Amino acid sequence: MSKVIAVAGGTGSFGRTLVEELKKAPLYDVIVLAPKATIKVPEVNDEEAPVIAVDYSNVDETAQKLASNNVEIVISTISVIDQVSSVSQVDLVKAASKSGTVKRFITSEWGTPHTEVSPMYQIRENTVIELRKTNLEWTRVANGYFMDYYGYPHVKTNLKPLFFAVDPPNKTAGIPGTGNEVLSFTYTYDVAKFVVAALGLPKWEETTYCYGEKTTFNRLLALAEEAQGTKFTVTYDPPEKLAKGEITELPSHPGMYPYFPKPALQGLFSLFGSWVLDGRLNVPEEKSLNVKFPEIKTTKLAEIVGAWKGH
């Protein structure tokens, strides 16, 4: 009998990618949890991944829906970026614990766990604090930075553009440090494949690691310049600039300010830049799912960035 997986936030972005991969896995049935206020269920329903409308603040009702669908594992892909989304995810943990059927929970991280200096640390740590109060086995996934962005819009992806350090559409780069620091990049479809594989592991660690390729921003830049047949305008941001919460503004950034204000975006990307310098975005090889599942062949950056050829 197939196990039922519930993906919270599975109607868009990375959540949608994860649902696509879960639908291919014969061991699992998948349902999607989406806030009542944001969906018209009949319009987005999918027989292979039915959408269940939930009000996360109604813990009892959500617990009942998890139980009635016999959900064993909840995977959160909720975009936890503020207090409202933080509370929603905490309420989902409470509902999962109360359901009586849910045994495992993957909390929404999808990058690297935030440190205490991050403005997002507490809003994400609130979920971990709640998970520790339960009997649920849980994990979060650290995969470095999503590779998809650097092939957008010429690669298959459900992500919206969010260019960190290199902006291929505008042939511009603002790179943290020297550009020779190693970090991990992973294609979202590969992250999803690793997650599906990890569902079958008998035991989870609190952080689950995976990656597609370890490389540097200077190599990414070289690949992008080769693909587009032109040199980019390049700036390097020193540690002192990053420490002040500042980065070089890329041409694509102002278009994001209406929904991601400039101070917040600069703060987040300067934090990411500091993490690159500290090696925090470089996934530890020995702890990675890549070692456990060598049969998963990952997409390489040259393929993603190379999608720009001819454009």
UniProtKB/TrEMBL annotation:
Record's keyword annotation contains S-adenosyl-L-methionine: no
GO molecular function terms attached to this record: oxidoreductase activity
Gene3D superfamilies in the cross-refs: NAD(P)-binding Rossmann-like Domain (3.40.50.720), UDP-galactose 4-epimerase, domain 1 (3.90.25.10)
Keyword Endoplasmic reticulum: no
Keywords: NADP, Oxidoreductase
Source domain of life: Eukaryota
Sequence ranges assigned to domain NmrA-like in this UniProt record: 1-250
Pfam families linked: NmrA (PF05368)
Family, per entry: Belongs to the NmrA-type oxidoreductase family. Isoflavone reductase subfamily.
Protein name: NmrA-like domain-containing protein
Organism per entry: Hypocrea virens (strain Gv29-8 / FGSC 10586) (Gliocladium virens)
